[in-house]
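Appendix C reproduces, verbatim, an entry submitted by the partner laboratory led by Prof. M.T., so that reviewers can inspect both the input and the predicted structure.
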Amino acid sequence: MTDTSRKTLLLVYHSWTGATEQMIQAVARGAASEPDVAVRLLRAPDAGPDDLLAADGYIFATPENLAAIAGLMKDFFDRSYYGALDRINGRPYASLICAGSDGSNAARQIARIATGWRLREIAPPLIICTHAQTTEAILAPKTVPASELEKGEELGAAFATGLGMGAF
């Protein structure tokens, strides 16, 4: 018999130069500290509406590319939107953006999609700035500082704790 009281936190992400992947791994580590929550980590191309329907909460993580969410995250949202529409209303979500300088437009895009799905934002967007401004710096593999990774772990732990307690 399975434990139906255990909640599922779905983490969907795309990473090009490694920063977003390091951050979502930190989120997953933090979330794994909650025994009443199962953490599912999926790359955007591997996730779809069935994954959304099977989860109780979501964290969407993407780099900001050209002042927008990454194309593969947009593809995930495009493929999943109508399959989940009106079927995940009220579920909690948070977003994580890795950006060279700003990240706010990508965060707004995710918020608009989440509004259409009628999701509840449980934390402000976590925006990590890499300060990459040249072509070489933008395309280079990234190493996220421990202080930023700690923010990801805190987000994951707080989200999972609230989800496990039934707070959202």
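The radius of gyration is 15 Å. Additional entries are available on request from the coordinating office.
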